[in-house]
Every structure is written in structure tokens, then in C-alpha cells.
Specification:
Blueprint (H helix, E strand, L loop, with lengths): L1 H7 L1 H6 L19 H15 L1 H25 L6 H20 L6
């Protein structure tokens, strides 16, 4: 009994962590229009309009992911083996020789 009466006093409630004034029994004449009630009303209002906001956020996340994917693709280089490099050089030399002889035209 005495402990409950002590818990109801405003000084004691300020010292107890995790205990809110609004959670305790309401005192006569106390208005329950505290900030958390106002916040709840604001949340309800944003939920009604909030459909657009949610879609915009997901679109932004998608765009960021696409940009990141593009950056990763730019960084990746094609690794060629020594044989492939040698083949490419031979092919290039052959094309250059054909061009010099007049067999083909350069693009």
C-alpha cells in the first residue's frame, strides 16, 4: 500500500526508469493529451496519405540498387588467358595485313 502510494507521487515516477506518467492512474483534472497521444494522431493521419510515401521509398531503394549494380558491372573486367590474348593479337595482325593489301576496308 505504501509502496503504491509512493509510486503514484510525481517525484518517485521521475526517478523510476521505464515508468511513464501516462501509464499510472490519471490524477483528477489531468488532461490525457500528452505528446505520445498527439504522435499517435499524427501517425494515423500519415497512414491515410502515406501510400504515396511508401511507394516513393521503395522506388528510391530500387534506383539505388540499380546504380550499385551498374557500378559493379563497370568495375568487373574481362580476364583473358594468355592463349586468348595471343589469338587476339594474331587476328588483329591478320586484319591489319588484309587492310594493307587492300582486301578489306577498315570500319
Amino acid at each position: 500500500m505504501e509502496l503504491e502510494a509512493a509510486l503514484r507521487t510525481s517525484k518517485w515516477e521521475e526517478r523510476v526508469p521505464g515508468k511513464r506518467k501516462a501509464d499510472s492512474e490519471s490524477v483528477a483534472g489531468q488532461d490525457n493529451s500528452g505528446s505520445r497521444f498527439k504522435k499517435a494522431k499524427l501517425d494515423d493521419a500519415t497512414e491515410e496519405i502515406g501510400g504515396k510515401k511508401g511507394k516513393k521509398e521503395t522506388k528510391d531503394k530500387k534506383d539505388k540498387k540499380e546504380k550499385k549494380d551498374k557500378m559493379v558491372k563497370k568495375v568487373k573486367k574481362v580476364r583473358r588467358t594468355k592463349e586468348e590474348k595471343k589469338e587476339m593479337k594474331e587476328k588483329k595482325a591478320k586484319m591489319e595485313l588484309m587492310y594493307q593489301l587492300g582486301g578489306i576496308s577498315k570500319k
